[in-house]
Amino acid sequence: MATKINSTAEGVASSTEASGAVSDENGSEFDYSLYIKNLRRFRSRRTLRGQAIGMVAISDAAAIFCGFGFAAIARRGDLDLVSLVGVGIYVPLYFLFALQNNAFAVAVITRADRSIGRSLASLALALGVMTVALFAAKVGSALSRREIGTAIVISAIVLGIVRYLMARTIQTRLGKRSMIEVALIDTESSVETDASFIVDARRFNLRPDPQDAGMVDRLAQIADEADCITVYCSEARRGAWAFMLKSFTTRSEIRVPELDRLVPLGLDCRGGKVSVVISQNKLGWHEAALKRIFDLVLAFAALLVLLIPMLLVALLIRLESRGPVLFRQTRIGYSNRQFTVFKFRSMFVRPPEESLTLTQRNDARVTRIGKIIRATSIDELPQLFNVLIGDMSLVGPRPHAPLARAGDDLYWTVDPSYWHRHAVKPGITGLAQVRGFRGNTFVASDLEKRLNADLVYINDWSLLRDAQILLSTIGIIFKRQNAF
What was the pLDDT predicted at 145? Predict the structure, then answer.
């Protein structure tokens, strides 16, 4: 829970978990020494963290030994040299991958789901490497595949159980705060912090002065006892504090409230110049490549299956009214760039000024075949070509025309975050559509519901979700609500 501090208040040097503030009217040096002693009382946290990591490591090794031992006894009746060699190879491999996966980090071992997931992933990777190594050394035939399989299955079960129990135990012992965080307040303004310890730099006469060896030592005492230091200071003193904090090995931060409104993703430094990272591709290159392959395979397969029905629809459109089979319109797409979207023409050809009016229920401009293909979303099928071209994806936020409105207001005037929905390619279908938000936007709330769904999709993207949305789309195609 955040603690609101006014740094000018007397005696601000406390632990939010200790017994109140430490202060004395006779002098700051005495206050400071008592504060350091109070801080050192929580050094046991580090000891507990080390013990917890050691206990998890020992229990992991025991789980693997249990698996191999049980498999050997079940097959041969006792533990032999082959089983011991197997454990001797497998355990180091497991720890190698577990360390690589941060499976022993405090933030992981205190969360049962993370702890079990990363340990089992390390177990699987170790199995793969050991299998390849044994067969490369041409000794794989000397080992029973059934025995190894049994050993791994039992190890996985025991490892999962042990990791779950250890997570519960460690949470109980460490409590909610496993790290020692110090907030160093060097400002007259009030600040909010949920740090474990709070110290008023002005009360204790602490300054970022590299010319004062005694001052450096006083700051080093805090750094030595803390896991993280966060400095709250005025803009004019940030440079001095940054210079001083770089001399300590403890993780150190400087609070910059001005960045709150920017919500940066991080910082970047090029040529000695620091910039604030505001945005980047929502999907990593591997995720984008996976989604693109998914789109190409399914779009091509869909065109093969739907080619004859699409040709039939095209023929019916031409027979009913004059004009092109395809309707082309400018839409806002990926990265807010405009592109041309393809649809089957569902209206009579009209003057350009009439086409700007949004479609209404029982609209006289819609042809007879147009009513059918609009109600069943068949008019959207030519967008499969947009997918092949690369302008669109199968799943994503639906592309809108630049002049689209919610009531009388342009979309981006209703909510400026409308532009954020274009951080991924637009889709033929999307999360908003399967949630029932389709059709015209008569009022602002119609757009807001779709926008919220689009932003949820972007932030929580996964290939599995794309597949789920496609399957759900099939079930809603023939629901005529809001489709006209």
Answer: 67
Confidence at residue 440, expressed as pLDDT on a 0 to 100 scale: 76
Return the amino acid letter for 351.
P
Task: State which residues of the chain have pLDDT below 50.
Answer: 1, 4-30, 356, 484
* β-bridge partners, 182: 197, 229
* CA 135/CA 156 separation, integer angstroms: 23
In angstroms, the first-to-last Cα distance of the chain is 51
The domain segmentation of the chain, as residue ranges, is: 3-17+177-277, 45-174, 285-476
Rounded Cα distance, 260 and 483, in Å: 42
Question: What backbone torsions phi and psi does residue 147 show, to the nearest 5 degrees?
Answer: -65, -45
Q: What is the pLDDT of residues 394-453, one digit of tens each?
A: 999 999 988 888 877 888 888 888 888 888 999 999 999 888 887 777 788 888 889 989
Largest Cα separation within the chain, whole Å, is 99
SS (H, E, C) the chain: CCEEEECCCCCCEEECCCCCECCCCCCHHHHHHHHHHHHHHHHHHHHHHHHHHHHHHHHHHHHHHHHHHHHHHHHHCCCCHHHHHHHHHHHHHHHHHHHHCCCCCHHHHCCHHHHHHHHHHHHHHHHHHHHHHHHHCCCHHHCCHHHHHHHHHHHHHHHHHHHHHHHHHHHHHHCCCCCCEEEEEECCCEEEECCCEEEECCCCCCCCCCCCHHHHHHHHHHHHHCCEEEEEECHHHHHHHHHHHCCCCCEEEECCHHHHHCCCCEEEEECCEEEEECCCCCCCHHHHHHHHHHHHHHHHHHHHHHHHHHHHHHHHHHHHCCCCCEEEEEEECHHHCEEEEEEECCECCCCHHHHCCCCCCCCCCECHHHHHHHHCCHHHCCHHHHHHHCCCEEECCCCECCCCEECCEEHHHHCHHHHHHHHCCCEEECHHHHCCCCCCCCCHHHHHHHHHHHHHHHHCCCHHHHHHHHHHHHHHCCCCCCCC
Residue-wise pLDDT tens digits, 210-247: 888 888 888 888 887 788 889 999 999 999 999 998 88
How many other C-beta atoms are found inside a 10 Å radius of the C-beta of residue 128? 11
Find, among 476, 421, 423, the residue nearest to 449 by Cα.
421
For 313-341, letters b (16+ CB in 10 Å) and e give bbebbeeeeeeebebeeebbbbeeeebeb
d(CA 23, CA 10): 8
- In this prediction the pTM is 0.56
